[in-house]
């Protein structure tokens, strides 16, 4: 790792196929709360690379970046991607890397303080191939040991699996976002249906009150009570006509007409009352 400006800009150079690729990491003033800018030179043809800005923007580690993300792993994932699948250059005038050009420079980023530390671990992961000095350094230098372990086949496989999982999480996130409009439409429809249901419920309550009122008006007990009141009033009218006739307030013809009509009315209502009472008694309903 080459430090350009402390805590602000660092570069890493490595081989991608037969070309030298330089990755520049720029840390903003709000890092690690905002993700870093990762630039690549020369410009590449790759889904992760944005030609207009010259930056890597669509790498899974950047898409899912948080203040707790390990910047070292993000950069290593980008380097592994370009090493395994060397991208084409945007320009056809790029020169090929010769065998005398420098080999890949290893980098390590600590996730605790998010700063770069320059190390050069051995590329071989077999301890039997290490020199005595390298073994002693592994025993005394924790940073050297950590980066040596990072180059083991097991951890490479784990990193590859992590990259696959990051891509899978990214795809799931995109799928969830693609369904956002559909879910919003369903929510809107549900709210509209709920409003209709509420309106129907209010109408039902009003109609139910009217029904209960009408049911009470036409209940057998209430009808019997009305018939009792009507027959009682008719009987009172008959007595009134008799009283007026005896006191000579009305003549005999008027008395006979009024009395006969009122008596008939009384007899009809009395008969209905008694018949309804008999029906209620037979049906077992309690008379009021």
Automatic annotation (TrEMBL):
Membrane topology: Peripheral membrane protein
Domain VPS37 C-terminal, residue spans: 201-288
Record has Iron as a keyword: no
Predominant localisation class: membrane
Gene Ontology CC: ESCRT I complex; late endosome membrane
Protein's GO biological process: protein targeting to membrane; protein targeting to vacuole; ubiquitin-dependent protein catabolic process via the multivesicular body sorting pathway
Signal peptide (from-to): none
UniProt keyword Protein transport, yes or no: yes
Keywords: Endosome, Protein transport, Transport
Location of this chain's protein in the cell: Late endosome membrane
Pfam families per record: Mod_r
Biological role stated in the UniProt entry: Component of the ESCRT-I complex, a regulator of vesicular trafficking process. Required for the sorting of endocytic ubiquitinated cargos into multivesicular bodies. May be involved in cell growth and differentiation.
Family: Belongs to the VPS37 family.
Name this polypeptide is given: Putative vacuolar protein
């Amino acid at each position: 790792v080459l430090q350009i400006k402390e805590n602000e800009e660092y570069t890493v150079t490595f081989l991608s196929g037969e070309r030298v690729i330089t990755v520049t990491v720029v840390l903003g003033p709000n890092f690690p709360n905002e993700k870093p800018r990762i630039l690549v030179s020369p410009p590449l043809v790759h889904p992760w690379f944005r030609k207009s800005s010259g930056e890597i923007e669509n790498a899974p580690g950047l898409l899912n970046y948080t203040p707790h993300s390990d910047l070292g792993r993000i950069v290593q994932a980008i380097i592994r991607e370009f090493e395994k699948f060397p991208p084409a250059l945007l320009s056809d005038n790029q020169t090929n890397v010769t065998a005398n050009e420098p080999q890949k420079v290893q980098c390590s980023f600590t996730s605790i303080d998010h700063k770069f530390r320059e190390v050069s671990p051995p590329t071989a992961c077999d301890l039997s191939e290490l020199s005595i000095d390298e073994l002693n350094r592994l025993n005394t230098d924790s940073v050297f040991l950590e980066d040596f372990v990072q180059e083991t086949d097991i951890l490479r496989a784990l990193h590859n699996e992590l990259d696959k999982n990051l891509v899978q999480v990214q795809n799931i996130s995109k799928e969830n976002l693609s369904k956002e409009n559909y879910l919003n439409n369903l929510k809107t429809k549900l709210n509209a249906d709920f409003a209709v249901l509420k309106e129907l419920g209010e109408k039902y309550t009003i109609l139910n009150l009217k029904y209960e009122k009408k049911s009470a008006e036409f209940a057998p007990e209430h009808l019997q009570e009305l018939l009792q009141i009507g027959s009682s009033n008719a009987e009172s009218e008959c007595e009134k006509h008799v009283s007026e006739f005896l006191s000579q307030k009305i003549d005999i013809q008027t008395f006979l007409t009024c009395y006969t009509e009122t008596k008939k009315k009384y007899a009809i209502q009395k008969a209905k009352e008694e018949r309804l009472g008999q029906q209620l008694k037979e049906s077992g309903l309690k008379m009021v």
